[in-house]
Amino acid sequence: MTVEEDNDLSRPFLGTTPPSEPLPADASTPDDDDRVRPYLITTGRTSPEDAAVQMQTVVVSAAAAEVSPGPKGTVEHARIIELCRKPHSVAELAAGLRVPLGVARVLVGDLLGSGLLATGPSVPQQATDVPFLERLIAGVSAL
Amino acid sequence: MSLHSDTTQALVQVAPKPVVVPPPAPAEPEPPRAPIPVKVVISGGFGVGKTTAIGALSEIEPVTTEAAMTTETIDIDVMAAGSTKTTTTVAMDFGRITIDDSIVLYLFGTPGQDRFGFMWPDLTAGALGGVVLVDTDRISDCFVAIDYFEKIELPFVVAVNQFDNRENLSLDEVREATDVDPDIPVITVDARDRSAVKAVVLRLLDLILTRAKYATGT
Questions:
Q1: Residue A94, by phi and psi: left (phi above 0), alpha (psi -120 to 50) or beta?
Q2: Contacts of A64 (CB under 8 A, 6+ apart)
Q3: Nearest-CB residue to B66 (from A9, A58, A134)
């Protein structure tokens, strides 16, 4: 894999416009799943509907997600719901789906919006929450 | 009659049995709750040991979300003498540490090179604190990270990675060179050593706790 290909794969995450030139004909590989352009998976969107979806955001499948990802659901949506039977961060989902972080953020945003994923309790001001910090310190000390 | 009486006596003398609560009927299994993520950013120059440090503490192998650079970029990224590194992080990698049943600590490594600086807003969004790893052979490599953390007022510690077979600068020299605020810890670390990396994270958390107590007047 060349450096140019790496850059192509990561481009939507990098925030630039999609490349206008098609892939060279010899770029196809036996593992074609890896060749889907990231902006196709997100239908061109580069940021999630909910800006609060960050790489460390942890999500888990809601009970309703047992059914299906819905009529607009894609293969990737279904895979995320499957993985999220156990809690996963967006970064872990990106790694699991082998998509750039930006793509995972958009897809997780979709599923949060439709109620198929849920986030946990939030501690918005971790840095000034003394009891939370003390709990964290105790936990790290015990590692 | 006497048998009945004996029985009554025996019943009286028996210690009262604890009330047995029947176990609750197995309810619908609760869907697991998502834990609270805590984000710490590990930063520093190229080849300074960020991925090593993350791997030392993480319960999973450090995961890279994108691809890895190959030796083809060695001409671009000049490493310190003695380094044998042949790949580096293109995007970012991370590790996970379960703290308890509702807190998970994520360590995110920033890309080592200045040219990936545009990623920093996303990398630091929602972060609790940062660690700046320093290679004293190339101390200026860490200035970008320190500048950024100071600009966004993210608490951080400066951790000087101790490389074998090198003459490392003293901590005083590093503090002077980086010119960080007096309350910012400048400490040594062996990025390969789990307890050393854990100590760095604890120093960071202590700094944040101290500031939190000061801010809340406790």
A1: alpha
A2: A115, A116
A3: A9
CA–CA dist A19, B52 (Å, integer): 34
Burial class (CB in 10 A: 0-12, 13-18, 19+), A26: exposed
- Contact assessment for residue B180 and residue B158, using Cβ atoms and an 8 Å cutoff: yes
What global pTM score does this model have? Answer: 0.75
Using CB atoms, pick whichever of B39, B91, B155 lies closest to residue A10: B91
Q: Do A56 and B108 touch (CB under 8 A)?
A: yes
User: Using one digit for the tens of pLDDT, what is the confidence trace for B5-26?
Assistant: 454 454 455 555 666 666 665 5
Binary contact (A56, B106; C-beta < 8 A)? yes
Spatial separation of the C-alpha atoms in residues B101 and A16, rounded to whole Å: 39
Distance CA B209, CA A127 (A): 7
A86, A89, A140: residue with CB nearest B32: A86
Q: Is there a contact between A15 and B118 if contact means CB atoms under 8 Å apart?
A: yes
Query: To the nearest whole angstrom, how far is the Cα of B60 from the nearest Cα of chain A?
Result: 11
CA distance A12 to A7: 10
How many Cα atoms are found within 13 Å in the side-chain-facing hemisphere of B78? Answer: 4
Q: Which of B133, B129, B153 lies closest to B143 in space, CA to CA?
A: B133
Residues in contact with B27: Cβ distance below 8 Å, sequence separation at least 6, in sequence order: none
Q: What is the ipTM of this complex?
A: 0.74
B148-191: per-residue pLDDT in tens? Answer: 999 999 999 999 998 877 777 899 999 999 999 999 999 999 99
Q: In whole angstroms, give the CA distance from residue B207 to residue B185.
A: 8
Gap from B179 CA to chain A (nearest CA, Å): 24
